[in-house]
């Protein structure tokens, strides 16, 4: 742990089957009569979304719907949603969707009160005025965006993803974790988003910037996600597994923005952009080799991970326990059908030097537990190839 660190989460979390029915009363607490509903197009016509709209109408709340949201959302989506919000005079943003949807809602909330464009706020704590209140209900157990202090928007002109971070002002005011919102998830989306949440928890737990508060929530997140993701992917309508996954994802989301992440996210960031695959899948493809690489940096933490994942380590040495964690992680990816090799998504050995150079320039050594050189990144990519 670094000499000084912090932990902060300002979001009120409501969880349980059918908790979405509390939304009208929640909006009343904010005295909101005009609401922009930012909703994932995949669920815009879902029964519970239609019920929410009817409940809001019954309470005299004017609601406009924005659903033109793409994966890895761009600045134009934010501009279009902002125009609708401004025309409405929205007093609150209600987001229902995955990480992309919630990130667009966050961006609109920020620019609505701070002015300018979302590009003006790239970086850490670049705005100081409270955004419009945001109430968020995730429809995937993955990014934890509803409680995290960051949002990611693509600058289409530069072709780069902008990270807008503020631990106090960027999380939603209220997050609703309702397993009903996950019932129609395609299994592959449940898989990739769930593994994204696992990586958030795992990399946060072993981060150089971890602290006792973040460790408490991320270790339990590892326990919840690893213990429920197989059931969740097999049947997203399994309400018990879905709720545990939502809780694990949110717990990880409360921590990783403050502890930082590591080499898995570093490598996945550039793989996803180059080969146009989902962020969760990109993470999963890199996870086993990076987990093994980082193991020697802190085997005690790996022993904790092994135990949280249900491994029997009672008679094992420290290094054997750490190895058990790596095996459990590798088995988890295998059980969920993650490809074994990066070559299966198109990566070629000739691409590796450039990818390694990008990784070393991204600066993840300030969080990753093992110091990683450009040569190390080359070796990691080759090991995953």
TrEMBL record:
GO terms for molecular function: alcohol dehydrogenase (NAD+) activity; metal ion binding. Residues 10-179 form the Alcohol dehydrogenase iron-type/glycerol dehydrogenase GldA domain. Belongs to the iron-containing alcohol dehydrogenase family. Keywords: Oxidoreductase. Its cofactor is Fe cation. Residues 192-385 form the Fe-containing alcohol dehydrogenase-like C-terminal domain. This is Alcohol dehydrogenase 2. The lineage of its organism: Bacteria, Pseudomonadati, Pseudomonadota, Alphaproteobacteria, Hyphomicrobiales. Pfam families: ADH_Fe_C, Fe-ADH. It catalyses: a primary alcohol + NAD(+) = an aldehyde + NADH + H(+); a secondary alcohol + NAD(+) = a ketone + NADH + H(+). It comes from Hoeflea olei.
